[in-house]
UniProtKB/TrEMBL annotation:
Enzyme Commission designation: 2.8.1.13
CDD domains named in the record: MnmA_TRMU-like
Name of protein: tRNA-specific 2-thiouridylase MnmA
Positions bound to ATP: 14-21, 40, 133
Positions of the tRNA-specific 2-thiouridylase MnmA-like C-terminal domain: 290-365
Family membership noted in the UniProt record: Belongs to the MnmA/TRMU family.
Gene3D superfamilies the UniProt entry points to: Adenine nucleotide alpha hydrolases-like domains, HUPs, Translation factors
Active site: 109 (nucleophile), 208 (cysteine persulfide intermediate)
Length: 376
């Protein structure tokens, strides 16, 4: 959101109640923008409180956000988007696990809530931009196009979960923390200097709508239990489970098989079949993925040129980069080959492509291809 001559913008600052969003709002106000704070009430139980450092969007977080807005000296409102959040994020999360896929609710929230429902409402009310505490950078090119780039500090970079933003959304996005070469401790020190009570507040972890961190328990309450088999690659029955949705590709712990493999090595979840409620396990090398197909591509700014091209890819919010060749087929399907095999790749996850620090775009993994293994 920069021009040759900086102008005063009407900015809606999404304030979660945490330190990052509070400092982002403070920086936007200090830069001279007309800032209004808003806390999104996303919980279906607005009277709930945080459990330790988990979760967000509770009544306690709303109070913390309001106190921060008072200190900054900006107007503050609470907007109830709980129904939209349940439909677009929570219900989608449950349906994806039920189908044997592994979703990322943070990407879905950014796509459907913060930069769709919230942004649409902000623009309708005359705001120019939505400001969040994400660590990423929007760059305005000389030709007027906008690009999403990694944060200056790779240790805090959050561009992966923003890889779903399109050109229109980037045009109205503001990330005041993205170009800050500081540690999280220094962000907290800045918050303390500004008199923000949230300076020492713990970060939220895991999935915000599962406050206790028990994803399997959360799913069991909504999907029920359904006993099925745990089998090896040859189909031999090794044990049972209470619902295939409770597993993820690459999982090692909690398999409860009861006896070791013949070679004495650990076994990992290789496949989840919701059709017959079966979980297949095997050795770690069976997780090696050499290629994948992804659907529903979204481009952060200009789309890539036609034909295969080399990029780096990130497969998890806190994962590293790996070199890939990607080709967009008929505009709807992304075919990706890895220079070196990668592990723990599951349908439903997002793959985000990068050209240097620039986020090219993202897509949802539909299928994977694994490296053929020699017979023992």
């Amino acid at each position: 959101m920069t021009d040759d001559a900086p102008r005063r913008l009407r900015v809606l600052a999404a304030m979660s109640g945490g330190v990052d969003s509070a400092v982002a709002a403070a920086r936007a106000a200090e830069a001279g923008h007309d800032v209004t704070g808003v806390h999104l009430a996303l919980s279906e139980n607005p009277k709930s409180f945080r459990t330790g450092a988990r979760g967000c969007c509770t009544i306690e977080d709303s109070h913390d956000a309001r106190r921060a807005a008072d200190v900054i000296g900006i107007p503050f409102y609470v907007w109830d988007l709980a129904e939209r959040f349940r439909e677009d994020v929570v219900d989608d999360f449950i349906a994806e696990y039920e189908a044997g896929r592994t979703p990322n609710p943070c990407l879905r929230c950014n796509e459907k809530i913060k930069f769709a429902a919230l942004l649409d409402k902000a623009l309708a009310l005359g705001f120019d931009a939505v400001c969040t505490g994400h660590y990423a950078t929007v760059v305005l090119r000389e030709d007027g196009a906008r690009e999403l780039h990694r944060a200056s500090d790779m240790a805090k970079d959050q561009s992966y979960v923003l890889g779903v933003l399109d050109d229109r959304q980037l045009a109205h996005a503001m990330f005041p923390l993205g170009d800050t070469l500081t540690t999280k401790a220094e962000i907290r020190e800045e918050a303390a200097r500004r008199g923000l009570f949230v300076a020492k507040k713990p970060d939220s972890h895991d999935i915000c709508f599962i406050a206790d961190g028990d994803t399997q328990g959360f799913l069991a309450k909504r999907l029920g239990t359904a006993e099925g088999d745990i089998v090896d690659e040859s189909g031999n029955r090794l044990g049972t489970h209470e619902g295939a949705y409770g597993f993820t590709i690459g999982q090692r712990k909690g398999l409860r098989i009861g006896h070791p493999a013949a070679d004495g090595k650990p076994r990992y979840v290789l496949d989840i079949s919701p059709v017959d409620n079966t979980v297949t396990v095997g050795p770690v090398e069976a997780l090696d993925v050499t290629a994948l197909t992804a659907i529903r591509p979204r481009w952060c700014g200009r789309p890539p040129a036609a034909g295969p091209a080399t990029y780096t890819a990130q497969l998890r919010a806190h994962g590293g980069e790996t070199e890939v060749t990607a080709d967009l087929v008929e505009g709807t399907e992304l075919r990706v080959s890895f220079t070196e095999p990668v592990r723990g790749v599951a349908p439903g996850q997002a793959i985000v492509l990068y050209d240097g620090t620039r986020v090219v775009g993202s897509a949802t993994i539909a299928t994977t291809e694994r490296r053929a293994r020699a017979e023992a």
